[in-house]
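Field: sequence (string)
Field: structure_tokens (string)

Example rows 1 and 2, in order.
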Amino acid sequence: MGGQVSVVTGGSGFIGSHVVRQLVAQGDTVRIFDLNPPGAGLGTEAAFHQGSILDATALEQVLRGAGRLFHLAANPNLWARDKSELSKVNYEGTRTVLDAAAKADLERIVVTSTETILKSYRDGSSAPISETSPLPELKDLAGHYSRSKMRADMAARDAMASGLPITIVNPTVPVGEGDVSFTPPTKMILGFVDGSTPAYLDCVLNLIAVQDVAAGHILAAEKGRVGERYILSGENVRLGRMLEILEQITGRPMPKRKVPYWLSYAVGVVSEFMADNITGKPPIAPLEGVRVAGTAMSFDNSKARNELGLELTPLADALGQSVEWLRAEGHLKAA
């Protein structure tokens, strides 16, 4: 269903750029609202409006005459030296976006949440998480990023209750091409493939092709029910199995050495202390990332498949697309 005017906050980002491409391909008039200009292939097909999601006036202007809003803009990092920045962008930014949306005549709003708010890092169960699983309390989330996104999620639910036509989507770990901002999943893959990460914590995670996440956003706007949540998840896989697939794809040896959780946690504590107080540079192992990795992040995607018709790319193909993009962009060291 094309031909609509769609605004995409964060439309220059990893997931957002794929949402923009797919909306343009189906005939929408697309407005990108982002601090950063779009990459190659987007600028001529979608109108770029530079701005911050903390700027209410700019948001009201870009939403004027639009029919749909996809709110993806966020700080996706698991560490920031100034912890308040995560809350400022992810929570206060979402509130500002939704306040502006309330003044516009929008047919549908899709708000992007995250997988990390769906399970307490203290929960040791391995059962797959679904939309009916109870949400954890703020204090039981893994860190500042997850708490900022939970508060944003709460703001979206409050706006739903006030009558805004909102659907929430929770992507799991997106992989694929075009991650120019190098979000944590792409950094993880690059570290293994270029040999800079020599060992791993064998955790359970859920990986999904970024183009499938983008398609899920659009399907949520077209087929999703207002007031509902949809988990956009792909394959539940152990990290060790992901490394086997990467080895088959690249021909490069992947790490075989596993590290215990207690050691990963200790490295996280030390490296984050150094980052916060001495270097000011991102830590080797953000403590929030270690806590999430120590939690079995397994998900049930049946609601998105059955209600939205979400189709999934095989995991090996998605990982191959990520590796090929890294190679084409010159990010891989020589084998």
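Row 2 begins here:
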Amino acid sequence: MGSADDIIKIDLKDILRTLFEKKIKIVAISFGIAVIFALLSLLITNKYSATVTILPNQSEGGLSQFSSVASLVGINLSGSTNSDQLYPDIVFSERLLDKLINEKWKFYKIDTLTTLYEIYEIEYDSTDQFPAAHQRNKLLKTLREDVFEVEISKNNGVIRISAVVKGDPEFGRELVNRAVFFLDQFNRETRKTKSTEEMIFLESRVEEVYDSLLTLENELKYFDKNNRNWTASPDLRIERQQLIRQIEVTSTIWIELKKQYELVKLNTIREKITFDVLDYSGVPTLKTSPKRGLLTIFIFIFSMLITSAYFLYGNKIKYFIVELKNDSK
């Protein structure tokens, strides 16, 4: 009985001769497997990627254009330069995704308007301790990991927000366009609220300080009217100087508050544009996956390798196994 090396050993000429003799069978078997796989791949639902391209407001200076939203979703921008992490965190925040979760959607598999829970088949488990919270967390995880993607160009700062969906490209377009709409709406509302609060505070302070200024000026006027010989009295001179200093300080404060008030009004106008949408998503017509052609070619090549190995070594391996069984008896 030969050793295992003798049984499996085969030279290059034998390999080429065997492959040439079995070439028709090898190709036929591999082709058949590839065809079967290609037919089975038709059962896999197509995926489509709908993309919106936006450009942050350049006048805001990079990352700061989303500072209001970032602070509300718990992102600290202090010293932050990592926009690759900042923008996904903002887009994937619960406050923005909840707006999408609360919407009704049209989906090709469902006749009526439905929710994202039904579209992504997130079931409500009544046996869970917190079923609603658990269901919501599963949907948030799906949206963050499997649906939305954020890509930022390091060259020009352009941001691409994509929604990858199965089977329904129109739903993908609607989902990503509405996500960007809510992002812009939320940012505008946040900025507007912040600016309004500042304007209300500054307006009240301007009026308050201005009233104080008028009161001090009237006191000085009354003082001069009732103390015409104030220059002859050291006490009256000091009292008058104190009034003048109070007027100067109050006037300076009023001027500064008035300046800040006008700046806030200008910023309110400037902040109306949070970012420019360069391209809204149309209906994606090209699927992103599965790549049936490439997969079929790969299966065909892989099948040829496996089939060739079978014809080269199949009988020898079988013989080797039989010999091992006989030796063990």
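free_text_note (row 2): The longest helix spans residues 169-226.
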